[in-house]
């Protein structure tokens, strides 16, 4: 059974190693991971199976914003197709609900078809594009999911 737990500084080495496993560009550097794990307006969680890191999720929330941003999400290659990505996206949506936020937003490389399909299956809609957004020149597809209608969000 997989568990979603807060990611802490004791997870730093494992998170950096997973980042290097998953990405060839736009990697989160160790220093930035450390910052994201300790700053007040970010939420970092990990998903573990039998004590082994299967993935992570980092959420960002700006003060006075109605949006929750999925800043980064990663699932280890051995843990793909086990539903862990969906569980982490559900965690983000639940966090947004609990904080009465209007949208969950994200950017994803337009070539990452698997991730795009996951986001669309979970109710995200395309709402823009950022040309050349990633270091490797890939365009970012901007996606969002409405959690609360405008009149009920904070």
UniProtKB/TrEMBL annotation:
Record GO terms (molecular function): acyltransferase activity, transferring groups other than amino-acyl groups
Keyword DNA-binding: no
Domain N-acetyltransferase: 2-148
Keywords for the protein's UniProt record, in alphabetical order: Acyltransferase, Ribonucleoprotein, Ribosomal protein, Transferase
Domain of life: Bacteria
InterPro entries named among the record's database cross-references: Acyl_CoA_acyltransferase, GNAT_dom, YpeA/RimI_acetyltransf
Pfam families to which the protein is assigned, alphabetical: Acetyltransf_1
Gene3D superfamilies membership: 3.40.630.30
Cellular-component GO terms for this entry: ribosome
Alphabetized PANTHER family for the sequence: ACETYLTRANSFERASE (PTHR43420), N-ACETYLTRANSFERASE DOMAIN-CONTAINING PROTEIN (PTHR43420:SF12)
The protein, known as: Ribosomal protein S18 acetylase RimI
Organism: Desulfopila aestuarii DSM 18488
């Amino acid at each position: 059974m997989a568990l979603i737990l807060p990611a802490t500084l004791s997870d730093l080495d494992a998170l950096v190693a997973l980042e290097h496993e998953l990405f060839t560009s736009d990697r989160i550097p160790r220093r930035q991971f450390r910052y994201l794990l300790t700053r007040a307006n970010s939420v970092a969680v990990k998903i573990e199976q039998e004590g082994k890191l299967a993935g992570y999720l980092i959420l960002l929330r700006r003060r006075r914003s109605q949006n929750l941003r999925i800043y980064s999400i990663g699932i280890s290659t051995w843990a793909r197709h086990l539903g862990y990505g969906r569980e982490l996206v559900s965690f983000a949506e639940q966090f947004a609900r609990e904080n009465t936020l209007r949208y969950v937003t994200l950017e994803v490389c337009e070539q990452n078809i698997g991730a795009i399909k996951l986001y669309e299956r979970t109710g995200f809609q395309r709402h823009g594009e950022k040309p050349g957004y990633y270091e490797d020149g890939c365009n970012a597809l901007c996606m969002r999911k409405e959690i609360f209608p405008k009149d009920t969000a904070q």
